Amino acid sequence: MKLWQKKGTTLHKEIEQYTVGNDPFLDQKLVKVDAIASIAHASMLNKINILTKQELKALKKELCNIIKLDKKNKFKITLKDEDVHTKIENHLTKKLGKLGKKIHTGRSRNDQVIVDTRLYSKEKLLGIEEQAIKLCQALAKQSQKNQSTPMPGYTHMQKAMPSSVGLWLGSFAESLLDYLELLDAAYKLNNQNPLGSAAGYGVPLNLDRNMTTKLLGFAKTQNNILYVQNSRGKIELAILNALTQIMLDLNKLATDLLLFTMQEFQFFEIPDEFCTGSSIMPHKKNKDVLELIRANYGIMLGYSTQIANIISSLPSGYNRDLQLTKEPLMAGLELANSTLSICTLVISKLEVNKKNLLKACTPELFATGKAFELAKKGIPFREAYKTIKNTNEWHKSDATKNIMQKKYAGATGNLGLPKLEKEIAKKKKIISKKQHQLNSTLNKLLRQ
Amino acid sequence: MKLWQKKGTTLHKEIEQYTVGNDPFLDQKLVKVDAIASIAHASMLNKINILTKQELKALKKELCNIIKLDKKNKFKITLKDEDVHTKIENHLTKKLGKLGKKIHTGRSRNDQVIVDTRLYSKEKLLGIEEQAIKLCQALAKQSQKNQSTPMPGYTHMQKAMPSSVGLWLGSFAESLLDYLELLDAAYKLNNQNPLGSAAGYGVPLNLDRNMTTKLLGFAKTQNNILYVQNSRGKIELAILNALTQIMLDLNKLATDLLLFTMQEFQFFEIPDEFCTGSSIMPHKKNKDVLELIRANYGIMLGYSTQIANIISSLPSGYNRDLQLTKEPLMAGLELANSTLSICTLVISKLEVNKKNLLKACTPELFATGKAFELAKKGIPFREAYKTIKNTNEWHKSDATKNIMQKKYAGATGNLGLPKLEKEIAKKKKIISKKQHQLNSTLNKLLRQ
Amino acid sequence: MKLWQKKGTTLHKEIEQYTVGNDPFLDQKLVKVDAIASIAHASMLNKINILTKQELKALKKELCNIIKLDKKNKFKITLKDEDVHTKIENHLTKKLGKLGKKIHTGRSRNDQVIVDTRLYSKEKLLGIEEQAIKLCQALAKQSQKNQSTPMPGYTHMQKAMPSSVGLWLGSFAESLLDYLELLDAAYKLNNQNPLGSAAGYGVPLNLDRNMTTKLLGFAKTQNNILYVQNSRGKIELAILNALTQIMLDLNKLATDLLLFTMQEFQFFEIPDEFCTGSSIMPHKKNKDVLELIRANYGIMLGYSTQIANIISSLPSGYNRDLQLTKEPLMAGLELANSTLSICTLVISKLEVNKKNLLKACTPELFATGKAFELAKKGIPFREAYKTIKNTNEWHKSDATKNIMQKKYAGATGNLGLPKLEKEIAKKKKIISKKQHQLNSTLNKLLRQ
Amino acid sequence: MKLWQKKGTTLHKEIEQYTVGNDPFLDQKLVKVDAIASIAHASMLNKINILTKQELKALKKELCNIIKLDKKNKFKITLKDEDVHTKIENHLTKKLGKLGKKIHTGRSRNDQVIVDTRLYSKEKLLGIEEQAIKLCQALAKQSQKNQSTPMPGYTHMQKAMPSSVGLWLGSFAESLLDYLELLDAAYKLNNQNPLGSAAGYGVPLNLDRNMTTKLLGFAKTQNNILYVQNSRGKIELAILNALTQIMLDLNKLATDLLLFTMQEFQFFEIPDEFCTGSSIMPHKKNKDVLELIRANYGIMLGYSTQIANIISSLPSGYNRDLQLTKEPLMAGLELANSTLSICTLVISKLEVNKKNLLKACTPELFATGKAFELAKKGIPFREAYKTIKNTNEWHKSDATKNIMQKKYAGATGNLGLPKLEKEIAKKKKIISKKQHQLNSTLNKLLRQ
Q: Would A348 be classed as within a structural domain?
């Protein structure tokens, strides 16, 4: 029975189906965090004398039991349960009688679902950052290993100037590292305790919001209780937008690799066991994995579009529309995680075909260098440029020497990898620390 | 085993997981159409002497058996099967030995999956059109019933001029009917046979493409075999864009209803059994169903964004990226169908509170009428307008009389409902006919 | 002075700036159609006895004069004028006194702006269709000329099977032709007369809507007067979505060309006078034009996103939000037109490097053909496939012979160009006829 | 003449038009920053002995002159100039002869345009933050003033529980403040010096990148020179996504205000001089400004869509597609600024109709409170809830007392405004400091 259902009334079957939607399926992944948040809430209710010590103990025990049942797939949410919150309250009432009916004092499902998605997102975001750091490490390692391997640099999809495998792969490591800052900003927005907002207008009890903030390991209490409700969807959008930026780096990496592994290039190769074949063409060795990395950027963009549209032109306060932000958020977090992990695998096993890369460093790549030689002799650059342009004939130079000679900061001869690796290591440590803190805070809550 | 797999080779587990993705789940819904298309393909192979009559008969029997197994949920596609095409070929080979290995002659999974989604979309689109027509009927009926019920007309969210419930509901019926034309255009694009394209470059056999076109009930053969591959995603986008337009009408209908059922309006009501409650507020009767209809427009828009992005900047020919267009297409078709059906339910049970509507027809609504009265007396309209503007005081008129007096085409006193109903009936007939033709064509193929 | 302004009142400067926005600039392009629609409206007012024959004549003369002034850039709309409708009414009042104040009888700026954008879009859409047909012709011509020129066919960005330049270019012509049907559906939606809707709730006059429908050359009167207002933005979205599909074809064409003109391919070339250079690299010959064609798909998508978002969750009736749909519509029409025209130029001058194309037809392209040879000998296809797969060694065949031998409908040896050209010619004729009808209808209205 | 143009060659007219596009118009706004960046670049060239002290002085003088000319609208970029970079180089060459031809040594237009948009964005972003703070202040002030003014709190667009004007307006202030953190993260990404990247592959000179970083006031040098190019569009997207979040707050504020100023509510009013009228309805007082604030969220979303699409599936290195990211960036910055400014005006002049707000606090709002009264007496909440639910009759309470009694953090009786105001003041100070630093750094560069 639904929490709000009046005895003797029923909800029209088709309406029930349409309104409940995918919630039972999605909420299954929220059982653990919903139980954890309920423990924190109950502890607070005990402190403000709504629950006795005894009652808190009993509730906590059963909530811990729910987490165990869920781990064993024995706590199944169905259409009739409506959502995880109802399922848990009904379970507690079934097990503990009247006591179960007390758990919802001082909260609404509206702040409950927010605390759930925030706790869920926190864990997932740290996992994603961890994966991103692993990819940075793989990129930096390959960049290091191939820093003196020349490759043609392209602009406008035309051969431009000498580049290096080190520069190319290093660029992705630096980009990812930069955009982790954006993810951090989203993480910070998400790291606020919404409990106490109830349906956006509070309750006439003397709630201790800072207590649940502390117990659940949030960095702060999200103050204005209406803002709590209005931030739903917005924080989800901030998360997805940051993930979109990360997917964009992976989209470019895949785009480059798909081009540079074409038969016409053969600059790189990925292992046979990463490739798939064709049902009709016996010779095919396809890089489906790279194509899907590329395409999954569009999937992520669609998730963000869904939220960006759903939450617009909505009046203040909870609206059921917000329920539909849950699926794109959860799917997006999943997708970023798996795509980062797959990319790390690909990069760590990337085969670099030095011979082909060197062969591809054809004369035109060196034309600009010639202009600079003249410029260094005092000829105004634009004149030097025109002189070379009119030559229309260019000669091959030593590509390796060329790239290693560019010694200024960030150039091919000075990639700054030691500094980059230091930054990666530092970031890794911060993430580990955050993960450790989160786990120990929540474990403490469960054990206490 | 995958169709393309070389004995002794394996696909890396994580790569397999990432590349197969949701296909086993999605493809489960394509078993029937894949089997049907395979029967058509086999019939054609028999005609061009690749298969004997006997062989065709055996294949057909087993493919029909697969459809039956699937109906009973006994034909389960798993991760290892990769997709529906592989599952079926492997099943046929298991059951029929060498004969099963012949079925793929002259096709690729690339044209096979297109024929699947086209057949699937055809059926779903006709179902959606049928649902849309039902909604049109419900709207027209309520419009008819309430054609002389006045309601305030709003512009800029401010009271503007007298309107009627009939005009308001009729506007949605006309809109839906108009946008079905757009859906028809997408249907027509989708109604082309892709078989024979193989991987986009054909096969060295003398395929009879028009034969499969006829057997499967397509309106035409999609000619250029590379265009067939390049149209993947594009046709899906055309379908989703048309569905987005329909969702937009439903979004506006829900937006209006959510406003007009607020306590401040109470123009309309929906039955209690359509409403849900709150877990914290005992008095609440929420119209979640309307909020979800409103929000699901954003979900649909996200699906279309996914495809619009995935298929851009892709070179010609099949790319694995296209695989990811399947999920948004299938989800979008499902969503449009259920949302139309829910709307029909809501509209057919809509309660109209005439008393409140009449009470809401306050004096300012009649100010413009006063200006026109002066204009009819020969005062230039702009002067009449200014005269009334300066009065700043308006008197209530008889709202019912007011709306019924506007007699020109499409105005409140002349909604044109008989013509509308005729058009709805005509459209309904066309859809039924198409559905019947499709069913009888496919049944004939299965029976033959 | 604004039409609605009360003497002695002022609009706050910053509010004026923000609300008027780009309208004076955009509306400049609507002067002609606004004047034309005003003539039709005045003619109708004469018929229903609001204007005398004399008055109609005077108004018409001055409205024609406005069109002439505008042609000479002497009818400038400024911030103070607010929009084209105000500018024209004020001009008429200035020139004709009281008579000018009568022109707005029976209409609102709300239906006036719709009639303007519809007339504007009609002309632009026909121009776009004309451009698209020119591109189809250029593609078909090049396809014809190069139908026996082999080129590698790619799937997954890997060499797949032999293709031809004819097949490749022909695929774009067929696609464009198909999507013109979608544009036609949008054109049809747009081809409805909105006049008489006023602000969505009509006027208490006996308007003759079918008369203006006929005078302005619309195919029908858009019936329900509230639907008229609610369709604003929706029809614009239908137009932009159809244009997005066309831009998608051009995006793919540019993507292909950018790939195939890389130094590693050199399959095609475009004339030097189409290429730009680099400010730093003397040797560069860049295909900026192709990159911009590719990127402008994203620009168009953004226009459609703007409208798709603006019109969602809006209640029925005119809302000022709709004003902001004008700019993306007009910009989108402009962009599609110029991009089609540029593509036609590029395709008509495309240089085909047959030698390189032939050289690129390497042995692996022929592996599938070998499997089919075995299949034709009766070996089940899957076995034949595996046999070839295990060989791992492929031999070059005669590519031209290979492609010409695939004789079934739509394959490389049977592109169906005569039929395609017939369809193009037919479509061209239809467009010309529509253009001619539109022009003669409007000219008749101006001359009468 | 274009910088890259070979004597005697011409660019096809239509291609020139299409490729140059809106650049002359947009680049006009970049003259100042391009000149400033050129001074920094020249100073660096002097340090590495490419330019003499004398030459630097002459260049600097003329570049300062260009800034002055531009201020007076006397430095007009035309189609023939192609862009601001060309215009300036050509101007310098015209004025200073050979010396002008030296300015481009060691850079490309590719890093030049990035440095321009970054400097431009920095200034604009600080201006936007300043505007946002002003709006926060206006919101906090009104919140303060109305903290004990009750208003109905809505969920699901139905009356829920007592709220307050203070809570409602305060929620927007807190939200804006939070999302400024996201804007800061984008600002930080943007605050990196791209100079020295050239076309992504550097130059064979010993550039001193840290020198230009310091001269131009960037927080750091963006290291990897290929990453510099690849970050174009990405940083723009980060900026627009952050602005979208801010527009989302304003969209909700406008949505609320449009609802609460309807005749059925009349909770608030905005001054007459902020309202517009109707061309047909004399009584109308429309809140167009609010509707446009609401709709401009969609416009912003479209800008972000444009960039999100353009930069996807692009290979590494500069591609001309990136040029098209400039317009949505610049338009988006402009739009956020003007919309924030307009909102501040509206909020600061908002009229609060206390009488109507109080009257709207009808009995159902107090039903939940009754349930909590029972819960406080020891009845399990779910039972208390059901008891009240079954009553079905609710009594009005003292709304002011009700809201002031909720005393916990963030609730109506404890909005935390002093803390909020402190945070606003702190943020304001930081922004002012940043603005001052930026101005003094750039002024110093110009004066030196």
A: yes
Q: Which domain holds residue A37?
A: 13-105
Q: Is residue A122 part of a domain?
A: yes
CA angle, residues A70, A73, A77, in degrees to nearest 5: 75
CB contact under 8 A, B226 and C167: yes
Write out pLDDT tens, residues C232-244.
Answer: 999 999 999 999 9
CB of B301 within 8 Å of a chain A CB? The answer is: yes
What is the tally of structural domains in chain A?
A: 3
Specify whether B278 is catalytic: yes
Task: Please indicate, yes or no, whether residues C375 and C425 belong to a single structural domain of this protein.
Answer: no
Chain A neighbors of B86, CB-CB under 8 A: 279
pLDDT range class, residue B8, cuts 50, 70, 90:
confident
Say if C90 falls within a structural domain: yes
Has D338 been annotated as catalytic? no
Question: Taking chain C, what is the end-to-end CA distance rounded to the nearest angstrom?
Answer: 32
Exposure b/e, C34-51, CB count within 10 A at least 16 = b: bbbbbbbbbbbbbeeebb
pLDDT tens-place string over residues A144-175: 999 999 999 999 999 999 999 999 999 999 99
**CB of D263 less than 8 A from some CB of C:** no
Question: Same domain, yes or no, for B172 and B76?
Answer: no
- Residues on chain C touching A371 (C-beta within 8 angstroms): 280, 282
Q: Is B259 in Cβ contact with C315 (below 8 Å)?
A: yes
Residue C139, domain member (yes or no):
yes
Tell me, yes or no, if A377 comes closer than 8 A to chain B by beta carbon.
no
- Same domain for B270 and B384, yes or no, is no
Same domain, residue pair D388 and D304: no
Q: How far apart are CA B131 and CA B124, in angstroms?
A: 10
Q: What is the pLDDT of residues A302-319, one digit of tens each?
A: 999 999 999 999 999 999
For residue range C74-100, what is the model confidence (pLDDT) as tens digits? 999 998 888 999 999 999 999 999 999
List all chains that touch chain C, counting a touch as 3 or more CB pairs closer than 8 Å.
Answer: A, B, D
Averaged over successive runs of 10 residues, the pLDDT of chain D (448 residues) comes to: 78 92 94 98 97 97 97 93 93 96 94 98 98 98 98 97 98 98 97 97 96 98 98 98 98 98 97 90 93 98 98 98 98 98 98 98 93 91 90 84 96 98 98 97 91
Residues C209-229: what's their mean pLDDT?
98
Asked if residues B433 and B426 have their Cβ atoms less than 8 Å apart, the reply is no
Spot the catalytic one: B41, B43, B163, B278: B278
| Residue B119: partners with Cβ closer than 8 Å, 6 or more residues away | B33, B36, B37, B216
Which pTM was predicted? 0.98
Same-domain status, B98 and B135: no
For chain D, the residue count is 448
Examine the pLDDT at B419 and tell me if it is beyond 80: yes
D87 at C interface, C-beta within 8 A: no
Name the residue in chain B with its Cα closest to that of A346. B15
**In chain D, which residue's Cα lies nearest the Cα of B286?**
D156
Q: CATH number for the domain including D24?
A: 1.10.275.10
Q: Are C23 and C131 members of one domain? A: no
Q: How far is it, in rounded angstroms, from Cα C288 to Cα C363?
A: 34
Any D CB within 8 A of C272 CB: yes
Whole-number Å distance between alpha carbons of B129 and B121: 12
Q: Residue count of chain B, please give it.
A: 448
Name every chain A residue with its beta carbon within 8 A of the beta carbon of B15.
273-274, 289, 342, 345
Instruction: Tell me which residue has tokens 């139908």.
Output: C147
pLDDT for A394 equals 78
Q: Identify whether the C-beta of residue D291 lies closer than 8 Å to the C-beta of residue C319.
A: yes
| B72 DSSP assignment | T
Residue A150: closest C-alpha in chain D: D201
Q: Clarify whether residues C66 and C125 are in a common domain.
A: no
Which one of C81, C105, C129 terminates a domain? C105
Chain B CB contacts of A17 under 8 Å are 338
Same domain, D315 and D367: no
Touching check for B406 and chain C: CB below 8 Å? yes
